[in-house]
Amino acid sequence: MFGRRKKNDSVKDGGAAEQVVDSVNAAEQDGAEDIDAAKPRRMNLPPAPRPDGPWDVSEVLGNPEDGRVDLGGILVPGVEGMELRVEVAGDAIVAATVVLGDSAVQLQAFAAPKKEGIWGEVRDEIATGITQQGGIIDEAEGPLGWELRAQVPVPLPDGQTGAQLVRFVGVDGPRWFLRGVISGQGAVRPESAGVLEQIFRDTVVVRGEGPMAPRDPIVLKLPNDAQMVPDGVQTTEEQEGSRFSGGMGQLERGPEITEVR
User: Are 122 and 109 in contact (CB under 8 A)?
Assistant: First the structure.
């Protein structure tokens, strides 16, 4: 079962993480055009090894759907007590967000070149876009490899501007790229994000064999038996079979995770 969130939901309605990502996506597109030509660009590098995941569907032994929720382009591992949201733009599902306690990770998969990784270049673009917005960026090597730790400006319901801490993580796979955006306490205190990081590692990407342009989003879908739960509605039905001692737990509106400074 899932929570559905449209892209026009407000911070007040619990859409803080999605709003930050929307803002950064726009800035990333702008930043792609404005990167300093004198700065070395991290292009044409082969994907780094992925001994701990995330996984391509061809790399998973057994049934890749065991303990995971099938969203078509990605298979998301289930964790006890989590809420799974899908972000909808029109009729298309563009991302999945796992909310766990006071932290969240948004997952998005994209097509990539066969023999080249794009995470280094994407990091440059994200950093440029956030800096142009007045945000602050720190590039660091974390448990999932190189990541960006950012203070992203966000508008607040009272008209003031706050700053939300987020972590951008990414991994290049065979003809795909998986990006995660960690927010909430998992970004404020990275040492508390172990379960979210494991969710990212154990996600399976199903790119498909068809031709796709690099950076095209890999299509997501709802499972056939999915039940949509509006914000604020709770249910105690659980999903069994997760390798993380599974079950989705109670589905309800997640916490607002904007940090005001």
Answer: no
| pTM, full prediction | 0.75
> Residue 246: phi, psi to the nearest 5?
-30, -165
Q: How many angstroms separate the CA atoms of 87 and 98, rounded?
A: 11
Query: What's the chain's length in residues?
Result: 261
Closest CA to 125 of 23, 31, 26: 31
Calculate mean pLDDT across residues 242-246: 31
pLDDT at 195: 95
CA distance 243 to 78: 8
Look at residues 130, 45, 30 and name the one whose alpha carbon lies nearest to residue 139. Answer: 130
Answer for the pair 201, 79: CB distance below 8 angstroms, yes or no: no
CB 216 within 8 A of CB 111: yes
- The 3-state DSSP composition of the chain as helix, strand, coil percent (nearest 5) reads 20, 35, 45
Taking CA atoms, 1 is separated from 22, 58, 71, 250, in Å, by 24, 27, 12, 10
Task: Output 198 or 1, whichever has higher pLDDT.
Answer: 198
The structure tokens listed for 228 are 């949509």
Distance CA 43, CA 153 (A): 28
Whether the Cβ atoms of residue 31 and residue 127 lie closer than 8 Å to each other: yes
